[in-house]
Design goal:
Length: 471
């Protein structure tokens, strides 16, 4: 697609020469002889960039620039002046001009300015796209009563300085809650710094949080600010704080009390202005009773508690989450678009999700990758996901209920063969090779146990004795 350029100048010679140059460079060019026509043409043409003369009859270029920026705050405008002064340049910049060029116009300067301005425009568009992507990735999806209670509490607490302790099982979206609080707070434009306390070795957690000075320990080859310093004037999110050592907890408590940090090996306290959000999947009361978590730190953090419900308590949100994840995963640069049938959505909504929302997202990705055909169906869900908390046909979930040992052996063999056939996508030859079993024997067992691929019309018939028969 050609880039669109609008030239607004009351000199026909400037319009003609500049237009000819830009058209030769491959741009789509339109002209306007005065500011009024230029503003009207801008609304119709929606150019990527405008060249505008400063001195024009009627409305001058600076006034037109002001009106244009009111009309479109993102407009990219390069001013042209026959006698530009520092005052004119300052005024143009104050009104939002990208640059100002002097007449007579220099071809090289025009093209360099144009390339730079369009590169700036591309960068702004990319930043906007990335912001939208991040917003979509960390969106809280759902309209159930349980999730609405969470979002309402987020809205109430976000614009206050209160500390928040987010609790919930693994995979429920505790990080999303923390990011939503930061995004809706007065600190939204400041850093959001996340620390996974469970992923950092206990001997390094203090250095990670509070920083260190060069030479303070082996490997400290330079001064390094900690996460609290990096989050100054913003928000720090201490994820899985229940896994933090008691020594580190004591130092975090001091930061919460005094608002100062001291780097390892340093002597100068540093003042920090940080909002602290924390999360854990543990029962903090039990951790305190067991002596693994400081009670005073708990009361400092737990000013406003927010509990994120597990997916089994908000099943009505599963269809919305499926649609959200499918749209994310099949976006630009992602997987090929594929419909997820209503039967598959119903089946997924019935399953247990011990891994909660994170497990559901991974499952949707697996289905989009491995399901045959243009549409994901319930048969694909049963084949690729199983039935989680329910006994899967031929699975091991109900074997303990079998009365006799002989029946148990048959049921176990049936479950084992069914699992292996599913693992090899019902390719009998590959399954037999993996089991080190003659293929004719496997066919006989398939017939004996009535094994059948999900969605197939009939039980597979026994193969001929010839071992070269295709499955």
């Amino acid at each position: 697609m050609k880039r669109r350029i609008l030239i607004v100048d009351d000199e026909p010679g400037i319009r003609a020469a500049l237009g000819q140059l830009l058209e030769f460079e491959g741009y789509d060019v339109r002209n306007a002889a005065n500011a009024v026509d230029g503003l009207s043409e801008y609304a119709r043409f929606r150019p990527h960039l405008v060249f505008m003369d400063v001195k024009m009859a009627g409305i001058d270029g600076l006034e037109a620039l002001r009106k244009l920026r009111e009309q479109d705050p993102n407009a990219v405008v390069v001013m042209i002046s026959g006698h530009a002064t520092i005052q004119t340049a300052v005024e143009a910049t104050q009104h939002g001009a990208y640059d100002i060029l002097e007449k007579p116009l220099d071809t090289d300067r025009i093209l360099v300015t144009l390339r730079n301005a369009l590169a700036h425009l591309d960068l702004s568009a990319e930043n906007e796209r990335l912001r939208d992507t991040v917003h979509s990735r960390f969106a809280i999806v759902g309209s159930s009563y349980a999730i609405r209670a969470v979002t309402e509490k987020i809205a109430l607490v976000a614009r206050t300085p209160a500390r928040v302790l987010v609790t919930g099982e693994n995979g429920t979206g505790k990080e999303l809650v923390a990011r939503a609080i930061h995004a809706q707070s007065t600190r939204a434009k400041a850093p959001f710094v996340e620390v996974n306390c469970a992923a950092i070795p206990s001997e390094l957690i203090e250095s990670e949080l509070f920083g260190h000075m060069k030479g303070s320990f082996t490997g400290a080859v330079a001064d390094r600010p900690g996460k609290f310093e990096q989050a100054d004037r913003g928000t720090i999110f201490l994820d899985e704080i229940g896994d933090m050592s008691l020594a580190a907890q004591a130092k975090v408590l001091r930061v919460l009390q005094d608002g100062v940090v001291t780097r390892i090996g340093g002597s100068k306290p540093l003042q920090v202005d940080v909002r602290v959000l924390a999360a854990t999947n543990k029962n903090v009361t039990d951790e305190i009773a067991a002596g693994r978590f400081r009670e005073d730190l708990y009361y400092r953090l737990n000013v406003v508690p927010i509990h994120v419900p597990p997916l089994r308590e908000r099943r009505e949100d599963i269809p919305s989450l499926i649609g959200h994840f499918a749209a994310q995963l099949t976006g630009p640069g992602g997987l090929a678009p594929r419909a997820i049938g209503d039967d598959a959505v119903t089946r997924l909504s019935q399953l247990d999700w011990p891994g909660n929302v994170r497990e559901l997202r991974n499952t949707i990705e697996r289905l989009l990758i491995l399901s045959p055909g243009p549409r994901v169906a319930s048969e694909d869900v049963d084949r690729l996901v199983g039935r989680h908390g329910e006994p899967v046909e031929g699975g091991l979930g109900s074997l303990l209920d079998i009365a006799t040992f002989e029946d148990f052996k048959h049921a176990a063999e049936r479950a084992y063969l069914l699992a292996k056939l599913r693992a090899f996508d019902w390719n009998v030859s590959e399954t037999a090779r993996a089991l080190d079993m003659p293929r004719s024997n496997l066919y006989k067992k398939i017939e004996r146990y009535g094994l059948n691929r999900e969605g197939a019309p009939a039980v597979l018939a026994a193969a001929p004795a010839d071992e070269d028969t295709d499955s």
